[in-house]
Records
---
Amino acid sequence: MKSIKSQSKYSCHVLTASKNTETLIVQTLDKSPDVRTLKKLHSRIISDPKLYSDTSLAIKLMRAYAARGKPDVTRKIFDRISERNNVICNVMIRSYVNNHFYRDAILMYKSMLASGVTPDHYTLPCVLKASSASDDLRFGVQIHCPAVKKGLDLNLFTGNEAQLVSLQTLISLFLSHTEDEPEDVGEGMDEVHVCTL
């Protein structure tokens, strides 16, 4: 009976140590560590089954690698996550966009849709930016129109980001792909809107 009691004390100590380790890793990831530190943290996470299965920790690790210009490592972490949601997909899309892998961001978005994950007001600005940066007007309009129809353009984040950055670029792209003079575009329309262009 004595051994059972001491074993339970040991288990409690291990749980506390594991929780402290997790807290320390999270705090370090939040401080934008360098790549060398990231690799050490990543190694520690992989070696602990509890940490390795923690999706929120994986998201923080993805963000940290992406911030250090490592979308390839970010993608490896993404690929090992079996149950994906829009947060995880958004981190991957943003990683690609912030590191100028615009086509990969668009492909990730399409993959996200194909797997049944619904985009949100954080997804669309990144995808619109990828679309405009890759000079893909048609895809940008395809993305923006459903966003407007769903009311996502009314959301502060999507409204500001998409309309001030990506929408202006999409309009510029449209103007550069048309033979009309800029002042002729939208002539005769009651209300000019990106979905009517």
Note: Residues 47 and 164 are 44 Å apart (CA to CA).
---
Amino acid sequence: MNHIVNALLSKGVVCRSLTPVSLRELDSRKRLECYVGVGLDARYICVWMRESKTKILSAEAAQLEALVARLEVLRNHRVFVKILLTNAPVCSKTQTLMQKNGWRIWRVPV
């Protein structure tokens, strides 16, 4: 979790609290790490960490949107900031689609 906090701090995002979310709660078998936190401006932040060598395509972006929707229902609050930390390349069409939906995509080293 330290590498997540350091990546967020390097981009200027500070959280009051940051707690991990089990993907079993979301009924998912994806190889992701999920953290939910509250920023200093009292907005909920959802951070997804994905380590992979393969490119992120639009199908996976749709799956991430579905996971965020499940997380909002499970936690009973709306996520205002959605951040994807990845070391994999992102398809340009997928990146524009995700940015239109309010995602921040940051490349981080392994």
Note: The chain has a mean pLDDT of 91.
---
Amino acid sequence: MVELNGLKKKINQYKPLFRVVVTSSSFNDALTKIKKNKPDIVFLDFNIENRVDLILLKELKQKNISIILSVSHLKDALVSFDYNVLHTIERPYTEENIAVTFNKIYGRLIRNEVLFNISKK
């Protein structure tokens, strides 16, 4: 839980642009909270050895939710090509990799807004 709490604190530094809506430490709880809260982005603490993580990735892809994949080894990130993974972040979290991640998320949000505004004209 230290990693999760540390990540929550770092995310909260980026308020009001981003905020932690809910956290979960189990598959069923995560699915329930995702259905209820309809997040734009999910941070998934991913372990390639855990089949449940792969199932959750499939569920998130079907719901068209952007995923930030948190991995302990970059080789685990190779799975990201098959899913809706916006970015991969390697643990342990650092100020630098958190900043890169949020800049990427923010850039995507801006691009989506620009595309939306263009299509409205």
Note: Confidence is low (pLDDT under 50) at residues 114-121.
